[in-house]
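Sat 14:20. Reprocessing the chain from the morning session after the first attempt stalled halfway. Input below, unchanged.
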Amino acid sequence: MPETLPADPLHWADAWLKEAFAAKVQRNPNSMTVATVAADGQPSARVVLCKDIVPEPGYLVFYTNYGSQKSLQIEDNPKIAAVLHWDALGRQVRVEGIAVRSPDAENDAYFATRDWGSRLGAWGSDQSKEIESREALVAQIRARGTDLGLKFAGDTQALTDGEIPHIGRPPRWGGFRLWATAIELWIEGGDRIHDRARWTRDVIRTSGNGFSTTPWSGCRLQP
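Finished this time. Tokens:
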């Protein structure tokens, strides 16, 4: 990183993500570990896909089932943390912040870009809920697909023809915006003398899921 730290770390994080995609360093360069905390204080972490970094005004976007464990924990405690790590590039981004649901229009627009199998899966799976077998899961997905107007070929997931009915977004599925209150950028260095810097800012809820923010304040950290 330059001697004078950049004023806005999210622009750097966004550039790093784009470079990771261009370099094809891993199958899903936008893999992001998201950590939430249950009411009893037990943390949980899982990998999701970061679908967007919006440097101005400053949030990251990921999508999930609103009935999932992560979503229910976010509803109880919206303070979460996330990590993007590119081992082949020697870079890492850590994020702390407040997660809120994305607007319905934004959710609808993104859902429409997904392939029909992913859209069907969003309807067919009650994420994080128990089920007796994989066979029962497949049967449930097929049954809900039939309700949506899909016609399957035999016992396969293939359709009988190339015509796919419109599959709208289920109400229980959508995005979260992670409004960053802290960002840490890390660059691998020789002899473990890594380059590390952290930025913080205040994020103030204005109304609904809207926020105002203060400028970023950055400092270097020892590795």
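The chain is about 25% helix and 35% strand.
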